[in-house]
Amino acid sequence: MTAIPSLQVRLHAPGGPEALRLETVPVPAPGPGEIRLIHTAIGVNFVDVYHRTGLYPLPALPATLGVEGAGIVESVGPGVSGLSEGQRVAYAGPPAGAYARVRNLPAERAVALPESVPDEAAAGALLRGMTAHMLYSRVRPLRAGDSVLVHAAAGGLGLVLVQWARALGARVIGTVGSEAKAALALAHGLERAVRYREADFVAAAREFGGGDGVDFAIDGIGADTLVRTLAAVRPYGMVASIGQAGGDSGPLDLAALGPARSIALSRPGVFRFMADLAHYREGAQATLTRLEAGLKVEIGARLPLAEAAEAHRRLEAGETSGSLLLLP
């Protein structure tokens, strides 16, 4: 097998969206334990922004960004079993390299797609689904009747978290930035939408939880939002901090958690969860099961691979709803 030239979005040094460069890179024949994949859809996630800015440094530069995609197996390397040329697969998580028309991928990270799951749905939901599975089964096992607060409920992750929690029998309140985003989240099962620029989400969440607050709050905003969210949770409830799209919240005094409030704070990372191959497979299967059962994947925008910088700009500006895809 020979190398295939591939358009890829590369990062040579940390920076703004303008640091992303479209380049042609030869992709060699897959090595032992690898497949060569032709992408059909590529997921854009906020962790890609963290990689671009250097907040979460990539192992080495230059590098191709992106940690989620779906496509067709073009060829398989020595020692690969269970996958074949022409098969539809998806993947999520490291190693980065999804912003590409063609890439090589460890075969153990490729997940075969059922006929009923479209490529775009897989590319827009696999990483988010694994995050939901981790949060609701490992971090704070969710029970029917629990109350949950989801920040950015109309985002790609937010919509998955809302639907997943409702499927488990939980009640969900969420924050949104506009009336249109409120309508979108409500249409995906959110029970109450709080427009955070106009209303106090802490008071709303406490009321929603019966006066003392919700059982579980999930925050990917960070900054002051995380600090305020601590007051939205009932005693012995939990806050999960899963990102900092709005900035670092800074050092946190343990007295903010208790003993007066008596709450727990978790900082789980889905990449750490996925580092264990058994957990990765578990999360992937849970996501595919939800998709086959009717989990809706809202595709907020589709952009050409060459417009990855524009995708990052929209994501950072909060202009997106649902999942954002790049099409090679």
How would you sum up this structure, described in words?
The chain has two domains: 4-126 and 279-326, Medium-chain alcohol dehydrogenases, catalytic domain (Quinone Oxidoreductase, Chain A, domain 1), CATH 3.90.180.10; 140-267, 3-Layer(aba) Sandwich (Rossmann fold). The protein has helices at 46-53, 119-139, 156-167, 179-187, 201-208, 223-229, 270-275, 277-292, 308-316, and strands spanning 4-11, 20-27, 34-44, 63-64, 68-76, 88-92, 102-106, 111-112, 147-150, 171-176, 192-195, 214-219, 233-241, 264-266, 299-304, 323-327. Strands 3, 5, 6, 7, 8, 15 and 16 form a seven-stranded mixed β-sheet that branches. With 328 residues, the chain is α/β, with parallel strands linked by helices. The chain is globular and about 65 Å long.
Topology, element by element:
Layout: E1 4-11, E2 20-27, E3 34-44, H1 46-53, E4 63-64, E5 68-76, E6 88-92, E7 102-106, E8 111-112, H2 119-139, E9 147-150, H3 156-167, E10 171-176, H4 179-187, E11 192-195, H5 201-208, E12 214-219, H6 223-229, E13 233-241, E14 264-266, H7 270-275, H8 277-292, E15 299-304, H9 308-316, E16 323-327
Parallel strand pairs: 9-10, 9-12, 10-11, 12-13, 13-14, 15-16
Antiparallel strand pairs: 1-2, 1-4, 3-5, 3-7, 3-16, 5-6, 6-8
Helix pairs in contact: 2-3, 2-8
Number of strands: 16
Using the coordinates shown, work out and report the CATH topology of the largest domain: Quinone Oxidoreductase, Chain A, domain 1
| Radius of gyration, CA atoms, in whole angstroms | 20 Å
Total tally of structural domains: 2
Percent helix range: 25-40%
Strand content: 25-35%
> Average pLDDT value?
96
Structural class: alpha/beta
